[in-house]
Write a structure and sequence with these properties.
The chain is of the alpha/beta class. The protein contains five helices and five strands. β1, α2 and β2 form a beta-alpha-beta unit. The longest helix has 24 residues.
């Protein structure tokens, strides 16, 4: 009986080690959802802090409605600080920015006004849903 218990304990230990190793190897994937244009710099700072804590994280920011405004050419915050430099910095760190085409069409915004670092997707909400349901992204709303 003692040998059987030892074998069982060894098997459990091996399974636990394999499970822990697999969990450690899983990539952290996060979608930040921005549909409010009141303070996009807060969202950008959240992403910066997130990457500082988890440099290997895959982060996508999906914007629609007023949330796209900071991704338009010439956009700046209340202090006149342009957003494009921060966006470029985060893109260099692997962040992907996605802009809703439905918003562009609904607001009659020329696609050429979108920063070149951002990708235009057919629908912002559909993109958020797809990333969660099909690609396993964790949802964050800054």
């Amino acid at each position: 009986m003692t040998i059987l218990r030892r074998c069982f304990a060894a098997i459990l230990l091996a399974l636990f080690a394999c499970t822990a190793a697999t969990a450690a190897q899983q990539a952290e994937k996060v979608v930040y959802h921005l549909n409010d244009g009141s303070n996009p710099m807060a969202a950008l700072n959240n992403i910066r802090n997130h990457l500082n804590a988890s440099p290997q994280a895959t982060i996508v920011l999906v914007a629609h409605g007023p949330g796209i405004d900071f991704l338009l050419d010439g956009a700046s915050d209340r202090n006149g600080t342009p957003y494009d430099a921060v966006v470029r910095e985060l893109v260099k760190r692997g962040v992907s920015f996605r802009v809703c085409n439905n918003t562009l069409q609904g607001r009659n915004i020329d696609r050429q006004r979108v920063l070149p670092e951002a990708v235009i997707v057919p629908s912002g909400v559909a993109e958020v849903s797809r990333l969660q349901a099909q690609e396993g992204y964790v949802y964050l709303k800054p």
